[in-house]
Amino acid sequence: MLSWLAVLSDSLHVLFMIAWAFGLPLLFWHRWPRLSFACTLYAVAFVILSQLSHQLLGECFFTTLSRSLWASAGVHADGTFTGRLVNWVAGVRPTTETAVLIWEIAIVGTAVAAAWSLLRHLRRRPPSGKTLSHPC
Known about the structure:
The structure is a single chain. By secondary structure, this protein is mainly alpha-helical. It is built from five helices and no strands. It has helices at 2-23, 33-57, 61-72, 81-90, 96-124. Helix 1 packs antiparallel against helix 3 (61-72) and helix 2 packs antiparallel against helix 5.
């Protein structure tokens, strides 16, 4: 049972990271403004939760949860989740320091992109209470 919870935790972690990664282009490409705005809000929440987690736990709360669940199930899960994911996808095992550095760079990039997207969105909105009129 605990191994299933560990797998579920890792699966949710991957899904949240995939949603984040696929949403990044929409912070720059505003073809669908509502979707871009939703991705901007998600990116902001992602950055805030990531930074709070790293300040309080020293790592992502999903990594802490996963490691705890795997340990309770009797399986040793070494390193960070991101490191294990990179090893699984690319076949290389980054050090914890390298994985954290790359993650921090990605978070800074996300924060900058989300801020730019949010400012762009706010500039394009008409003042509250006013509607745009059409000549026809």
